[in-house]
Amino acid sequence: MQTELTAPEANMFAPRHGSGFRGRLWATDPSLMSLEEAAAIVAETPHLMAWASAVQAAAVERVREGMSEVPAATREGQPERLDGNVAHALTVTEVALLQGTSEAAAARLVNTARELSSTHVAVMDALESGDITDQHARTIVDQAASLPESAREAFGIAALAAARTRAGRLRTPGEFRRTARDLREKMHPESIQVRKRAAAQERGVWLRPEDDGMVSLSALLPAETGMAFYRRIDAQAPSAHRAPGEHRTLPQLRADTLAHLGLGAALPGGSADGSADSPADGSAQSPADGSADGPAVPEDMLASVRAEVVVHVPASVVLGSDEGTAYLDGYGVVDAGTARRLAAEAPTWHRIFDDVDGAPLRIGRTAYRPPEPLRRFLRYRDGTCRFPGCTRPAESSDIDHTKEWQDGGGTDADNLAHLCARHHALKSLALIQARQEAARTASGGQYDEPTGTIVFTTMLTYERTTTPADRDRMLGQRDMPAQPFPLLPGEPVSDGTPDGRAPCPRPLDREQPLDREQPHVEGQPEAPF
Q: How many angstroms separate the CA atoms of 68 and 116, rounded?
């Protein structure tokens, strides 16, 4: 029995002002639903989501067409950027900002929308009618992508027919992926040798931060290489597992073996490359009766980690007076014990200052390239590419003049920011605009102190604001330790400190080697290592 809907009882979706959607959609309040009504909504929701996905794909494709049609007022004399795919890059950027998602996810959406609107029209119609889900449609597009263009449409139609079983049941996304993959193998006109050479061009390694101080590391490799590598890791783990006193599980031992190999640390009984541990094919070397207990795989990897990592650590954490947190670049928050051990292994300490008096933050028009102290400050301040939502680390991004050098912009902290290659190219082509804001007083006046706040304006005239990396949020409030810091050798004594110690030593631009016997920190209470 259907319950008549009234406004107070309904959960309603109403389009926001200016939205392309019209009308309203509502459902009975869940607390008032009968069991039959709730089941019907659960069954119908995938159809609604499929329809919304089709509408979204059509709208994204229209945005892409619009970006190609609108003449961009680009700067004269600029070389070709982004391999000529400026409209695609601009579309991805706009879609990511509109949806609040990453540009990788936006790129997948843009590419899928283009294929559904051109090559796979039949798939688009099935998605809009709710005959398949968005996952089915993406599987068809992904599997067809490796086919020659002339074979993609036929594959899409065949895959669409295979989306349901002979009994008419829609295959689950997992079932359908296997079915579509098998169908692709049958319909592919190229040999597997040719396809393997092409697929090998996509090999790579990826890092994904996980919770609680962990990460996932994955790789795409040729099958024979990956299998040999895994067998070599797998051969070490069982023998080590039999060692007296070993408490780790086999998966933990495999992970520790991989870490030692990746960090170049020698495994017990062999070299770092494992030449004495296993044959070239990765198979295990063990006695015929399998009775031998293998050498233990060390569990502690921090001794093998050196200065390739950057950790922002409050001085109170390094000195042991605070059990707060530190920040590992590229990952996030780590515990105080890990930070102190990384600091103890670091051959040098880099001091970073985040105030105007700590480093030369302005050199004006005297030089185009910022000096190293200023570059270090910018890396610390920005953390990543400063375009909204971009997570490309500052270390692999460009330092950009917000107001272009040729337009009179200075090499100053309040006119410099990190941008990744993509966003740097779009800004250089004047397809996105940027301005840095200075700190303001309550009355609206401006200070000279740079804040690092940047306002970006896109081709669709949307404005987005980004602020510097929030070190207080990452590390906690930066309270100075009660005891004064010792001075570096030769460091001038601050005025008014007759005991020869300064509560906050003057900042230095040079690097200082770490005294491992008596480690100390100079400068501000927060410094990266």
A: 18
